[in-house]
Design a protein that fits this description.
Layout: E1 5-16, E2 19-25, E3 37-42, E4 54-59, E5 69-75, H1 81-88, E6 94-97, E7 112-118, H2 123-139, E8 145-151, H3 160-169, E9 173-179, E10 189-190, H4 197-203, E11 210-217, H5 218-231, E12 239-244
Parallel strand pairs: 7-8, 7-11, 8-9, 9-10, 11-12
Antiparallel strand pairs: 1-2, 1-6, 2-5, 3-4, 3-6
Length: 245
């Protein structure tokens, strides 16, 4: 097993009322596959002998970079010991971290791609999308890619401006936001992500023409997988998921 590394916060910004993005510098470029995650680890100085350290997993929310930095999107959970610590952390604070891990990774697309996320479930897709855009530019064409992102309100649509900009420059990409509690000023789609799956899968060529990825809370992921398999005939092996609660 590879030894842990130390990551230092070099930037911080607010993405949504309860979500903070932290940019870490890892000392040397972080080797990872888009979609993977890292553990952040805190060992309390006054912990009892043999006590387990505080450890939480976060998906890498950025493309691979030469400057050894990477982004994590952190939702503040009231009473959550790690999330509250990270929301209070400052530039220069250091954390122990694992190397990148996980199997929720992007398969080289042979079909069109549907990405479905809610909340910070969009974090691994940010890494995947930058990778896909680079491939599409190199090939001058490629699979169509749709990002279906659900949130309660417009201010909770993470990286919204980035997705709009990507759609404006990448012909094969479409950003589809939907709100479950949008106010009267919202003119886009409404409802949970599940409600829009049939239309989007059909537009991508049907269940046989799609690779689907879902990331978010367990309840959403379970319902999305069920609709894709049972109602839309997407083969089980083409539905990839990662869930957290």
């Amino acid at each position: 097993m590879l030894p842990p590394r130390t990551a230092t916060i070099v930037r911080a910004r607010t993405l949504a009322p309860a979500v903070r993005e932290l940019t870490f510098e890892a000392g040397a470029p972080l080797a990872f596959v888009p979609g993977q995650w890292v553990n952040l680890i805190v060992r309390e100085a006054n912990a009892a002998p043999g006590a387990e350290p505080l450890k939480r997993s976060y998906s890498i929310a950025s493309p691979r970079r030469a400057d050894a930095t990477f982004d994590l999107a952190i939702t503040r959970v009231e009473g959550g010991p790690m999330s509250e610590r990270l929301h209070a952390a400052r530039v220069g604070d250091r954390f122990e971290m694992s190397h990148a891990q996980g199997f929720f990774t992007l398969t080289p697309p042979r079909r069109n791609v549907l990405l479905v996320a809610t909340g910070t479930g969009v974090a691994p897709f940010r890494s995947m999308l930058h990778d896909l855009e680079t491939r599409a530019a190199a090939q001058e064409e490629g699979a169509r890619v749709v990002l279906l992102l659900g949130a309660r309100t417009a201010e909770e649509l993470l990286y919204r401006e980035e997705w709009d900009a990507l759609a404006a420059t990448w012909p094969g990409f479409e950003f589809v936001p939907t709100l479950s509690r949008g106010d009267g000023g919202w003119t886009g789609r409404r409802g949970y992500v599940q409600a829009h799956l049939a239309e989007l899968v059909a537009a991508l060529g049907g269940g046989d023409a799609v690779d689907a990825y879902a990331c978010g809370l367990q309840k959403m992921v379970g319902e999305v997988r069920k609709v894709l398999r049972e109602a839309l005939a997407v083969p089980r092996e083409r539905i990839h998921h990662e869930r957290y609660d």
